[in-house]
Amino acid sequence: QVVSTPSGAMVTLDRSQSANTPYTFSNIPVGSHEVSVYMSGYQTFYTSVSVNEGQTASVNAVLQPVVTTGTLSVSSSPSGAAVYVDGIYQGVTSTTVGNLVPGSHSVRLTKAGYQDWTGSVSISAGSTTYLNPTLVVEQQPQYATVSISSNPSGASVYGDGVYVGQTRSGS
Question: What is the number of other CB atoms lying within 10 angstroms of the CB of residue 157?
């Protein structure tokens, strides 16, 4: 006798006889037999059952859902940052990225006027990982004026290795 949760699964006895659960196979030879219970969307349940003369052996198959991917929910402060998971654009915050393979993934958030945020997240099958970083305002470059003179005048002046002109006289 084979029952399953949920019921209505395909049960196969010794890889030959099949029926839908709940089902009782009759006239089964005494001894050990293979039982598999399959339903789409669930992990296949396997067991062996020992059948004794004049008795009914019972199998209660509790089927586990197949969950092979995880989800990443990304927010940011401020919102509206572009989201890249493993280098692939996935929208702007706040957003949810689904069908991610379990394991570690790289995440990068970009928003004009803010420093890029980079990190990694660990995704688990059948669950949602939440990420909510605070973006740091990008520092604006500071500018200054430099006056360079030399005696004699006319020396070449380089800034960061780039020629910018000649010196004037120091009078």
Answer: 13
Measured between alpha carbons, how far is 77 from 131 in angstroms, rounded to an integer? 11
Q: Are 2 and 37 in contact (CB under 8 A)?
A: yes
8 Å CB contact between 64 and 37: no
Distance separating alpha carbons of residues 44 and 143, to the nearest angstrom = 67
Long-range pairs of 112-121 with CB within 8 A, sequence gap ≥ 24: 113/137, 113/138, 114/78, 114/81, 114/138, 117/76, 117/81, 121/72
Question: Can you list the residues of the chain whose pLDDT is less than 70?
Answer: 141-142, 169-171
Strands 82-85 and 103-110: antiparallel
Tell me if 70 sits within 8 A of 100, measured CB to CB: yes
pTM here is 0.50
CB-based burial label for 81 (10 Å; 0-12, 13-18, 19+): buried
